[in-house]
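Exercise: predict the fold of this chain.
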Amino acid sequence: MKKVIAIIPARAGSKGIKDKNIKNLNGKPLISYTIEEAKKSKQIDKLIVSTDSKEISDISTALGVEVPFLRPTELATDSSLTYDVINHTMKFFEERGEKFDIIVLLQPTTPFRKVDSIDEAILTLRNSNKYTSVVSVVDVEGNHPLRMKKIEGDFLINYVDQGYENMNPRKELPKVYIRSGSIYAILTKNFFEEKSLVSKSCSPMILNKRETINIDTVLDFKLCELILNDDYENFI
């Protein structure tokens, strides 16, 4: 059976929201939502947090998750690449004789992703010879590329040039999805061969809007607080 490592990347710095990854969300640190859900998984063999912060490390450890190292400073900047962060983690364990067949990335900024979705992604890679990665996506709905614009010079023009202005109702436009950031799962060999979390043979995991809420701004954070303090089914 393929061995699975799940990595929660949580650096200290954040421009949009100060200390975002451990900011209090409805009574507990934001990162705790991802940790608690991931710990429910029966498919994850090792769950770790990769961080450059002693405070985040202490919080994660208290929540029962391994923090095997403090990430080097150069891998914890605004311009640090996720590939390099994961590569650092995999090399760390490889040097200690631990190898994993599947890598799962769970960003702490998506607090509503469910363990069933995590396990489904892993099982897809464990049971299928068709796919080498799984990526969660969400319907763009009204933010459709055929409605999008760009500015060239002083003029507003279509981002996708169809030769005419597409005024069709949303329901008549072709379905388009965007990566949600909730779940990335990939075979380790493909991660290194393709140097990406999204391989050429990628299985889409379409999640509902709640599971794909990604906290990037104060408004996103306020939305999550509202959902947690209200009846979600009546909210979205």
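Check your answer against the key: Strands lie at 4-9, 24-25, 28-29, 46-50, 102-105, 133-139, 149-152, 155-158, 177-187, 202-206.
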